[in-house]
Here is the input.
Amino acid sequence: MAYEIEMLPKEKVFLDPVHNYIHIQHKVILDLINSKEFQRLRRVKQLGTTSFTFHGAEHSRFTHSIGVYDITRQICDNFQRNYPSKNENDGLWNDDERIVALCAALLHDVGHGPYSHTFEHIFDTDHEKWTQEIITSDKTEINQILKQVSPDLPDKVASVIAKTYPNPQVVQMISSQIDADRMDYLLRDAYFTGTEYGMFDLKRILRMMRPYSQGIVFDASGMHAVEDYLICRYQMYQQVYFHPVSRGMEVVLTKLLKRAKDLFDTNQLEKFELSNFLMPFFRNDVDIDDYLRLDDGILNTYFSIWQDSPDAILRDLSSRFLNRKPFKSVEYSSDTEHLLPTLANIVENAGFEKNYYTSTNTNFDLPYDIYDPKKQKNRTQIELVQADGTFIELSTVSPLVEALSGRFTGDERFYFPKSMLKNQTNDIFNDAYLEFQSNIRNNKII
Here is the structure.
Protein backbone atom coordinates (compact mmCIF):
# COMPACT_ATOMS: atom_id res chain seq x y z
CA MET A 1 0.00 0.00 0.00
CA ALA A 2 1.35 3.41 -0.99
CA TYR A 3 1.04 6.11 1.66
CA GLU A 4 0.73 9.82 0.99
CA ILE A 5 3.74 11.00 2.96
CA GLU A 6 4.14 14.67 3.80
CA MET A 7 7.64 15.92 3.05
CA LEU A 8 9.33 18.61 5.10
CA PRO A 9 9.41 21.98 3.32
CA LYS A 10 13.16 21.96 3.87
CA GLU A 11 15.32 18.94 4.59
CA LYS A 12 16.40 18.69 8.24
CA VAL A 13 20.04 17.77 8.82
CA PHE A 14 21.52 16.35 12.03
CA LEU A 15 25.28 16.52 12.47
CA ASP A 16 26.53 13.11 13.55
CA PRO A 17 30.09 12.06 14.53
CA VAL A 18 29.76 8.69 12.75
CA HIS A 19 27.70 9.43 9.63
CA ASN A 20 28.54 13.13 9.30
CA TYR A 21 25.19 14.47 8.08
CA ILE A 22 21.93 12.62 8.78
CA HIS A 23 19.13 13.70 6.45
CA ILE A 24 15.49 13.94 7.55
CA GLN A 25 13.11 14.48 4.65
CA HIS A 26 9.76 13.16 5.93
CA LYS A 27 7.62 15.01 8.45
CA VAL A 28 6.63 11.75 10.16
CA ILE A 29 10.27 10.93 10.92
CA LEU A 30 10.92 14.35 12.47
CA ASP A 31 7.68 14.09 14.47
CA LEU A 32 8.71 10.66 15.76
CA ILE A 33 12.12 11.98 16.80
CA ASN A 34 10.38 14.79 18.71
CA SER A 35 7.96 12.43 20.49
CA LYS A 36 8.41 12.07 24.23
CA GLU A 37 8.93 8.30 23.98
CA PHE A 38 11.79 8.74 21.53
CA GLN A 39 13.33 11.66 23.44
CA ARG A 40 13.49 9.38 26.48
CA LEU A 41 16.21 7.44 24.66
CA ARG A 42 18.56 10.40 25.23
CA ARG A 43 18.50 9.29 28.89
CA VAL A 44 19.37 5.64 28.24
CA LYS A 45 23.01 4.78 27.52
CA GLN A 46 23.69 2.62 24.50
CA LEU A 47 26.36 0.55 26.24
CA GLY A 48 25.15 0.41 29.84
CA THR A 49 28.06 -0.31 32.18
CA THR A 50 30.68 -0.26 29.40
CA SER A 51 31.41 3.43 30.10
CA PHE A 52 32.98 2.31 33.40
CA THR A 53 35.69 0.67 31.26
CA PHE A 54 35.82 2.85 28.15
CA HIS A 55 35.22 6.32 29.50
CA GLY A 56 34.12 7.80 26.16
CA ALA A 57 31.22 5.38 25.79
CA GLU A 58 28.59 7.82 27.04
CA HIS A 59 26.48 7.78 23.88
CA SER A 60 22.77 7.06 24.03
CA ARG A 61 20.14 4.86 22.42
CA PHE A 62 18.86 8.10 20.85
CA THR A 63 22.00 8.67 18.79
CA HIS A 64 22.20 5.02 17.78
CA SER A 65 18.55 4.90 16.68
CA ILE A 66 18.98 7.95 14.45
CA GLY A 67 22.07 6.31 12.98
CA VAL A 68 20.13 3.14 12.16
CA TYR A 69 17.49 5.30 10.49
CA ASP A 70 20.11 6.96 8.29
CA ILE A 71 21.75 3.72 7.20
CA THR A 72 18.31 2.38 6.31
CA ARG A 73 17.58 5.56 4.35
CA GLN A 74 20.80 5.05 2.38
CA ILE A 75 19.84 1.42 1.65
CA CYS A 76 16.42 2.54 0.39
CA ASP A 77 18.03 5.22 -1.78
CA ASN A 78 20.43 2.70 -3.28
CA PHE A 79 17.67 0.17 -3.96
CA GLN A 80 15.37 2.74 -5.53
CA ARG A 81 18.12 4.18 -7.71
CA ASN A 82 19.66 0.89 -8.88
CA TYR A 83 17.07 -1.87 -8.35
CA PRO A 84 13.57 -0.37 -8.67
CA SER A 85 10.71 -2.80 -9.11
CA LYS A 86 9.23 -2.93 -12.61
CA ASN A 87 6.42 -5.35 -11.83
CA GLU A 88 4.89 -6.97 -8.76
CA ASN A 89 6.78 -10.28 -8.99
CA ASP A 90 10.29 -9.24 -10.00
CA GLY A 91 11.66 -9.32 -6.43
CA LEU A 92 13.17 -5.86 -6.71
CA TRP A 93 12.61 -2.83 -4.47
CA ASN A 94 9.15 -1.29 -4.18
CA ASP A 95 9.72 2.19 -2.77
CA ASP A 96 6.24 2.15 -1.24
CA GLU A 97 7.96 0.15 1.53
CA ARG A 98 10.31 3.02 2.36
CA ILE A 99 8.28 4.67 5.11
CA VAL A 100 7.67 1.38 6.97
CA ALA A 101 11.38 0.60 6.80
CA LEU A 102 12.44 4.08 7.97
CA CYS A 103 9.98 4.16 10.87
CA ALA A 104 10.96 0.65 11.99
CA ALA A 105 14.66 1.54 11.82
CA LEU A 106 14.16 4.70 13.87
CA LEU A 107 11.95 3.01 16.49
CA HIS A 108 13.62 -0.40 16.75
CA ASP A 109 15.11 0.36 20.22
CA VAL A 110 12.39 2.58 21.68
CA GLY A 111 11.46 -0.15 24.18
CA HIS A 112 14.88 -0.37 25.83
CA GLY A 113 14.86 0.20 29.57
CA PRO A 114 17.61 1.65 31.77
CA TYR A 115 20.79 -0.45 31.80
CA SER A 116 18.59 -2.52 29.56
CA HIS A 117 19.96 -6.06 29.51
CA THR A 118 20.71 -6.15 33.26
CA PHE A 119 17.32 -4.62 34.03
CA GLU A 120 15.59 -7.13 31.75
CA HIS A 121 17.22 -10.03 33.56
CA ILE A 122 16.14 -8.90 37.04
CA PHE A 123 12.61 -7.78 36.21
CA ASP A 124 11.88 -10.24 33.39
CA THR A 125 11.12 -7.60 30.75
CA ASP A 126 11.64 -7.87 27.00
CA HIS A 127 12.66 -4.68 25.19
CA GLU A 128 11.42 -5.94 21.81
CA LYS A 129 7.95 -6.65 23.19
CA TRP A 130 7.91 -3.24 24.87
CA THR A 131 8.99 -1.66 21.59
CA GLN A 132 5.99 -3.22 19.87
CA GLU A 133 3.72 -2.14 22.72
CA ILE A 134 4.93 1.47 22.55
CA ILE A 135 4.37 1.54 18.80
CA THR A 136 0.88 0.00 18.90
CA SER A 137 -0.55 1.49 22.12
CA ASP A 138 -2.95 4.37 21.58
CA LYS A 139 -1.54 5.92 24.79
CA THR A 140 1.73 6.95 23.13
CA GLU A 141 2.65 9.93 20.99
CA ILE A 142 4.49 7.58 18.64
CA ASN A 143 1.31 5.66 17.94
CA GLN A 144 -0.67 8.82 17.25
CA ILE A 145 2.00 10.16 14.91
CA LEU A 146 2.06 6.92 12.90
CA LYS A 147 -1.73 6.82 12.73
CA GLN A 148 -1.79 10.28 11.20
CA VAL A 149 -0.10 8.71 8.19
CA SER A 150 -2.34 5.63 8.14
CA PRO A 151 -4.37 3.68 10.74
CA ASP A 152 -2.48 0.47 9.84
CA LEU A 153 1.04 1.94 9.97
CA PRO A 154 1.68 1.22 13.69
CA ASP A 155 0.90 -2.48 13.24
CA LYS A 156 3.07 -2.70 10.15
CA VAL A 157 6.02 -1.05 11.88
CA ALA A 158 5.61 -3.27 14.94
CA SER A 159 5.52 -6.36 12.73
CA VAL A 160 8.96 -5.44 11.33
CA ILE A 161 10.29 -5.48 14.91
CA ALA A 162 8.55 -8.83 15.45
CA LYS A 163 10.08 -10.12 12.17
CA THR A 164 6.62 -11.05 10.85
CA TYR A 165 6.32 -8.31 8.22
CA PRO A 166 5.63 -9.98 4.84
CA ASN A 167 8.44 -8.21 2.96
CA PRO A 168 11.73 -9.91 3.97
CA GLN A 169 13.76 -7.07 2.45
CA VAL A 170 12.42 -4.66 5.07
CA VAL A 171 12.90 -7.12 7.93
CA GLN A 172 16.48 -7.91 6.90
CA MET A 173 17.37 -4.22 6.68
CA ILE A 174 16.67 -4.01 10.43
CA SER A 175 17.41 -7.54 11.63
CA SER A 176 19.84 -9.97 10.00
CA GLN A 177 23.51 -10.91 10.27
CA ILE A 178 24.44 -7.71 8.47
CA ASP A 179 21.79 -5.07 9.06
CA ALA A 180 21.48 -1.34 9.69
CA ASP A 181 21.26 -1.90 13.46
CA ARG A 182 24.50 -3.86 13.71
CA MET A 183 26.37 -1.68 11.25
CA ASP A 184 25.55 1.46 13.20
CA TYR A 185 26.27 0.12 16.67
CA LEU A 186 29.60 -1.38 15.60
CA LEU A 187 30.79 1.88 14.06
CA ARG A 188 29.31 4.06 16.79
CA ASP A 189 30.55 1.92 19.68
CA ALA A 190 34.01 1.71 18.11
CA TYR A 191 34.10 5.48 17.72
CA PHE A 192 33.07 6.26 21.29
CA THR A 193 35.18 3.55 22.92
CA GLY A 194 38.22 4.52 20.87
CA THR A 195 38.66 1.00 19.50
CA GLU A 196 39.60 1.47 15.87
CA TYR A 197 39.42 -2.23 14.96
CA GLY A 198 35.63 -1.83 15.01
CA MET A 199 35.77 0.28 11.87
CA PHE A 200 34.73 -1.21 8.51
CA ASP A 201 33.87 0.15 5.06
CA LEU A 202 30.19 1.01 5.42
CA LYS A 203 29.93 2.78 2.07
CA ARG A 204 31.30 -0.22 0.21
CA ILE A 205 28.91 -2.62 1.92
CA LEU A 206 25.92 -0.41 1.17
CA ARG A 207 26.90 -0.24 -2.50
CA MET A 208 27.10 -4.05 -2.65
CA MET A 209 23.63 -4.68 -1.20
CA ARG A 210 20.92 -5.86 -3.58
CA PRO A 211 17.26 -6.75 -3.05
CA TYR A 212 15.76 -10.02 -4.22
CA SER A 213 12.51 -11.87 -3.57
CA GLN A 214 13.72 -13.52 -0.35
CA GLY A 215 15.45 -10.50 1.16
CA ILE A 216 18.87 -8.94 0.63
CA VAL A 217 22.03 -10.29 -1.00
CA PHE A 218 25.50 -8.86 -1.62
CA ASP A 219 27.40 -8.56 -4.86
CA ALA A 220 30.23 -11.12 -4.86
CA SER A 221 32.73 -8.37 -5.67
CA GLY A 222 32.07 -6.93 -2.22
CA MET A 223 32.98 -10.13 -0.37
CA HIS A 224 36.08 -8.66 1.27
CA ALA A 225 34.14 -5.71 2.68
CA VAL A 226 31.67 -8.15 4.24
CA GLU A 227 34.57 -10.22 5.62
CA ASP A 228 36.00 -7.07 7.16
CA TYR A 229 32.64 -6.28 8.77
CA LEU A 230 32.42 -9.75 10.34
CA ILE A 231 35.99 -9.58 11.65
CA CYS A 232 35.27 -6.15 13.13
CA ARG A 233 32.15 -7.52 14.78
CA TYR A 234 34.13 -10.42 16.22
CA GLN A 235 36.79 -8.08 17.61
CA MET A 236 34.23 -5.71 19.14
CA TYR A 237 32.52 -8.54 21.00
CA GLN A 238 35.77 -9.96 22.32
CA GLN A 239 37.46 -6.66 23.21
CA VAL A 240 34.55 -4.37 24.15
CA TYR A 241 31.19 -6.05 24.73
CA PHE A 242 32.70 -8.96 26.69
CA HIS A 243 35.25 -6.90 28.62
CA PRO A 244 35.54 -8.46 32.12
CA VAL A 245 35.53 -5.10 33.94
CA SER A 246 32.31 -3.97 32.27
CA ARG A 247 30.81 -7.32 33.19
CA GLY A 248 32.09 -6.85 36.75
CA MET A 249 30.09 -3.63 36.99
CA GLU A 250 27.11 -5.38 35.44
CA VAL A 251 27.30 -8.04 38.15
CA VAL A 252 27.36 -5.33 40.85
CA LEU A 253 24.30 -3.72 39.23
CA THR A 254 22.51 -7.07 39.02
CA LYS A 255 23.14 -7.84 42.69
CA LEU A 256 22.14 -4.30 43.69
CA LEU A 257 18.78 -4.56 41.97
CA LYS A 258 18.30 -8.08 43.33
CA ARG A 259 18.95 -6.89 46.89
CA ALA A 260 16.46 -4.03 46.54
CA LYS A 261 13.82 -6.41 45.16
CA ASP A 262 14.47 -8.97 47.91
CA LEU A 263 14.13 -6.28 50.59
CA PHE A 264 10.88 -5.12 49.03
CA ASP A 265 9.52 -8.67 48.89
CA THR A 266 10.21 -9.09 52.62
CA ASN A 267 8.92 -5.61 53.59
CA GLN A 268 12.38 -4.46 54.62
CA LEU A 269 12.74 -1.40 52.40
CA GLU A 270 12.48 1.71 54.55
CA LYS A 271 9.86 4.26 53.60
CA PHE A 272 12.37 6.80 52.27
CA GLU A 273 13.92 4.10 50.07
CA LEU A 274 10.70 3.02 48.39
CA SER A 275 10.67 4.00 44.74
CA ASN A 276 7.37 4.95 43.16
CA PHE A 277 9.14 4.39 39.85
CA LEU A 278 10.38 0.89 40.68
CA MET A 279 7.48 -0.35 42.78
CA PRO A 280 5.46 -1.62 39.76
CA PHE A 281 8.49 -3.67 38.72
CA PHE A 282 8.95 -5.01 42.26
CA ARG A 283 5.27 -6.01 42.20
CA ASN A 284 5.45 -7.39 38.65
CA ASP A 285 2.53 -5.18 37.66
CA VAL A 286 3.89 -2.81 35.03
CA ASP A 287 1.92 -0.77 32.51
CA ILE A 288 3.28 1.28 29.65
CA ASP A 289 3.32 4.52 31.65
CA ASP A 290 5.37 2.84 34.39
CA TYR A 291 7.82 1.52 31.84
CA LEU A 292 8.32 4.80 30.04
CA ARG A 293 9.03 6.71 33.25
CA LEU A 294 12.25 4.82 33.82
CA ASP A 295 15.66 5.83 32.49
CA ASP A 296 19.28 5.61 33.66
CA GLY A 297 18.97 8.81 35.68
CA ILE A 298 16.01 7.50 37.68
CA LEU A 299 17.91 4.36 38.66
CA ASN A 300 21.06 6.31 39.51
CA THR A 301 19.04 8.64 41.75
CA TYR A 302 17.74 5.71 43.75
CA PHE A 303 21.20 4.19 43.95
CA SER A 304 22.34 7.48 45.46
CA ILE A 305 19.49 7.39 47.99
CA TRP A 306 20.26 3.78 48.83
CA GLN A 307 23.80 4.73 49.83
CA ASP A 308 22.15 5.89 53.09
CA SER A 309 20.11 2.71 53.52
CA PRO A 310 19.99 1.01 56.94
CA ASP A 311 20.62 -2.24 55.05
CA ALA A 312 24.39 -2.75 54.88
CA ILE A 313 24.32 -4.81 51.66
CA LEU A 314 22.11 -2.39 49.74
CA ARG A 315 24.20 0.49 51.01
CA ASP A 316 27.48 -1.15 50.02
CA LEU A 317 26.38 -2.34 46.57
CA SER A 318 24.96 1.12 45.75
CA SER A 319 28.26 2.72 46.68
CA ARG A 320 30.24 0.16 44.69
CA PHE A 321 28.17 0.84 41.59
CA LEU A 322 28.13 4.63 41.75
CA ASN A 323 31.81 4.86 42.62
CA ARG A 324 33.06 2.25 40.14
CA LYS A 325 34.16 -0.61 42.37
CA PRO A 326 33.71 -3.59 40.04
CA PHE A 327 33.86 -7.16 41.21
CA LYS A 328 36.99 -9.00 40.10
CA SER A 329 36.79 -12.21 38.15
CA VAL A 330 38.58 -15.37 37.10
CA GLU A 331 37.85 -17.76 34.27
CA TYR A 332 36.48 -21.22 34.90
CA SER A 333 35.75 -24.19 32.67
CA SER A 334 33.73 -27.37 32.76
CA ASP A 335 36.71 -28.98 34.50
CA THR A 336 36.76 -26.43 37.35
CA GLU A 337 33.09 -25.53 37.59
CA HIS A 338 32.66 -27.92 40.53
CA LEU A 339 34.90 -25.63 42.62
CA LEU A 340 32.53 -22.65 42.39
CA PRO A 341 30.42 -23.54 45.47
CA THR A 342 33.61 -23.96 47.51
CA LEU A 343 34.92 -20.57 46.39
CA ALA A 344 31.57 -18.94 47.11
CA ASN A 345 31.66 -20.36 50.64
CA ILE A 346 35.18 -19.00 51.15
CA VAL A 347 33.92 -15.56 50.07
CA GLU A 348 31.12 -15.85 52.61
CA ASN A 349 33.65 -16.87 55.30
CA ALA A 350 35.44 -13.61 54.53
CA GLY A 351 32.36 -11.62 55.50
CA PHE A 352 30.45 -11.33 52.23
CA GLU A 353 27.00 -12.87 51.78
CA LYS A 354 27.57 -15.13 48.78
CA ASN A 355 24.13 -14.58 47.25
CA TYR A 356 25.03 -10.93 46.69
CA TYR A 357 28.81 -10.97 46.38
CA THR A 358 29.51 -13.93 44.10
CA SER A 359 28.20 -14.65 40.65
CA THR A 360 28.96 -16.41 37.41
CA ASN A 361 28.81 -14.48 34.16
CA THR A 362 28.85 -16.23 30.81
CA ASN A 363 29.24 -14.36 27.54
CA PHE A 364 29.42 -16.15 24.23
CA ASP A 365 28.82 -14.89 20.71
CA LEU A 366 28.37 -16.62 17.38
CA PRO A 367 30.29 -14.40 14.93
CA TYR A 368 28.61 -15.98 11.91
CA ASP A 369 25.77 -18.47 11.84
CA ILE A 370 25.37 -20.92 8.98
CA TYR A 371 22.19 -22.83 8.30
CA ASP A 372 21.73 -25.95 10.39
CA PRO A 373 18.60 -28.05 9.67
CA LYS A 374 18.74 -29.42 13.23
CA LYS A 375 18.29 -25.97 14.77
CA GLN A 376 14.84 -24.55 15.45
CA LYS A 377 16.02 -21.01 14.73
CA ASN A 378 18.59 -20.00 12.16
CA ARG A 379 19.82 -16.50 11.45
CA THR A 380 19.55 -15.26 7.88
CA GLN A 381 22.68 -16.37 6.06
CA ILE A 382 24.77 -13.90 4.08
CA GLU A 383 24.40 -14.76 0.41
CA LEU A 384 26.57 -13.47 -2.43
CA VAL A 385 25.20 -13.04 -5.94
CA GLN A 386 27.65 -14.03 -8.67
CA ALA A 387 28.08 -12.63 -12.17
CA ASP A 388 25.68 -15.18 -13.67
CA GLY A 389 22.99 -14.35 -11.13
CA THR A 390 23.40 -17.47 -8.99
CA PHE A 391 23.75 -17.26 -5.21
CA ILE A 392 26.50 -18.67 -3.02
CA GLU A 393 26.67 -18.65 0.78
CA LEU A 394 29.52 -16.50 2.13
CA SER A 395 31.41 -19.08 4.21
CA THR A 396 31.75 -21.43 1.24
CA VAL A 397 33.99 -18.95 -0.59
CA SER A 398 35.64 -17.12 2.31
CA PRO A 399 38.21 -19.03 4.40
CA LEU A 400 38.09 -16.22 6.99
CA VAL A 401 34.35 -16.51 7.45
CA GLU A 402 34.50 -20.30 7.35
CA ALA A 403 36.87 -20.15 10.34
CA LEU A 404 34.29 -18.12 12.29
CA SER A 405 31.20 -20.02 11.16
CA GLY A 406 29.14 -21.86 13.73
CA ARG A 407 31.76 -21.43 16.46
CA PHE A 408 30.88 -19.66 19.67
CA THR A 409 33.55 -17.45 21.20
CA GLY A 410 33.65 -16.02 24.71
CA ASP A 411 34.28 -17.18 28.27
CA GLU A 412 32.78 -18.12 31.62
CA ARG A 413 33.85 -16.08 34.64
CA PHE A 414 33.38 -16.25 38.40
CA TYR A 415 32.94 -12.83 40.06
CA PHE A 416 33.75 -11.83 43.65
CA PRO A 417 34.87 -8.77 45.70
CA LYS A 418 38.34 -7.47 44.92
CA SER A 419 39.40 -7.77 48.56
CA MET A 420 39.49 -11.56 48.15
CA LEU A 421 42.79 -11.02 46.35
CA LYS A 422 44.35 -9.13 49.25
CA ASN A 423 47.21 -10.55 51.27
CA GLN A 424 47.49 -8.60 54.50
CA THR A 425 48.62 -10.50 57.57
CA ASN A 426 46.85 -8.07 59.92
CA ASP A 427 43.45 -8.72 58.34
CA ILE A 428 41.23 -11.10 60.30
CA PHE A 429 40.12 -12.71 57.03
CA ASN A 430 43.64 -13.29 55.69
CA ASP A 431 43.36 -17.07 56.00
CA ALA A 432 40.23 -16.98 53.84
CA TYR A 433 42.00 -14.80 51.28
CA LEU A 434 44.93 -17.19 51.09
CA GLU A 435 42.65 -20.22 50.76
CA PHE A 436 40.72 -18.47 48.01
CA GLN A 437 43.87 -17.47 46.13
CA SER A 438 45.29 -21.00 46.31
CA ASN A 439 42.59 -22.01 43.81
CA ILE A 440 43.64 -19.40 41.23
CA ARG A 441 46.55 -19.22 38.81
CA ASN A 442 46.96 -16.87 35.86
CA ASN A 443 43.45 -15.49 36.39
CA LYS A 444 41.89 -18.94 36.08
CA ILE A 445 40.45 -21.38 38.59
CA ILE A 446 42.67 -24.44 38.90
